[in-house]
């Protein structure tokens, strides 16, 4: 099997307008290029102001200029899927991480409606068909009681039918490991790229390595494994070295 990819998350500091914002846009960009979950509490798309997209696009363009060849994507919280596509197009990024592609759910910020049909048409309309859409299924920080009669495999099948480019499986919360059986069910149900989106650590990465196409890692790369802290180069090296030694 091909070596799984590792996507390290760049968490932007709180943007202007967010309750925890303390930095200028330039300072936020500088921090991002050294290393955003800091805009808590997250807003639903209908409440999000345009400066979020504009600032994130500017920072993404700076990132792409500094790292022109790496595979890179963007996510806008919460459920800012169209915004993410527009940022990816402007900054020449490769993919977006998409929440609520199929089936609605209740998140911390309220109800999130599915948007696959609108999103794929928007991608076509703006000429961004080369940008992949990787889809969270049964995503973390959410209640799935509305779709409690559907297994994670059922949701994977629906996302595949609605033309996702890849699937992201998570634990219940940030930093919570994925259930191995969830990966097994998804793999058995669809022929899609599958990524782990939470809870990867030095203790378990090799346990998953042969089952997935990649890992999206945020908290584990930070000091003490906590998402709000700064990047810890030793933790980054430990995890990447483990995967390199296996492949």
From TrEMBL:
SUPFAM superfamilies: Ribulose-phoshate binding barrel. This is Oidioi.mRNA.OKI2018_I69.XSR.g14579.t1.cds. NCBIfam families: thylakoid_BtpA (TIGR00259). It comes from Oikopleura dioica (Tunicate). InterPro entries: BtpA, RibuloseP-bd_barrel. It holds the Pfam family BtpA. PANTHER family: SGC REGION PROTEIN SGCQ-RELATED, ZGC:162297. Belongs to the BtpA family.
